[in-house]
Amino acid sequence: MPPFSFELRRMYAGQVLRAVDEGRSSMSVEAMVQGMIDTLNEALADAGKHDRGNSAAGTRVRKAMQTIKGCAQDVRKQVQADKNA
C-alpha cells in the first residue's frame, strides 16, 4: 500500500476532482478505485480498534469514510466524462 495519510489522499482527491471537472483527468478509473480500496484497507485496522472501544479510532474511521465518499464521487464524474467524450 502507498504510504499516504488520509489527509494527503483527501488533498489528492480534490486535485482529481478539479481535473475531472475540467475534463483533463489523467488518472484511470481503475487506479481511482484501487485508491479507494487501499484507503478502506487502512481504515480496517482502526475499525477493529473502534470496536474494542477506542473512540479516537472511530474518528479516523469516519474521516476515512468521508474520503471514500469523495473518491466515489470522483469516480462517478470520471466515468460520466468518459461516457460523454
Walk me through what this model shows.
- The chain is mostly helical and 85 residues long.
- It has one domain (6-84).
- It has helices at residues 6-21, 29-51, 55-84.
List keywords for this structure.
85 residues; mainly alpha; 3 helices; elongated
Spell out the blueprint of helices and strands.
Blueprint: H1 6-21, H2 29-51, H3 55-84
Helix pairs in contact: 1-3, 2-3
Task: Count structural domains.
Answer: 1
* Major β-sheet annotation: none
Order of helices and strands: HHH
By helix and strand content, what is the structural category?
Answer: mainly alpha
Helix content: over 70%
Bulk shape: elongated
Terminus-to-terminus distance: 32 Å
Beta fraction of the residues? under 5%
Annotation, overall tally of beta strands: 0
Task: Tell me, rounded to a whole number, the average pLDDT.
Answer: 82
Rg measurement, Å? 14 Å
Work out the oligomeric state of the chains in this entry. single chain
Low-confidence runs of at least 5 consecutive residues: none
Count of helical regions: 3
Summarize the structure.
The chain is mainly alpha-helical.
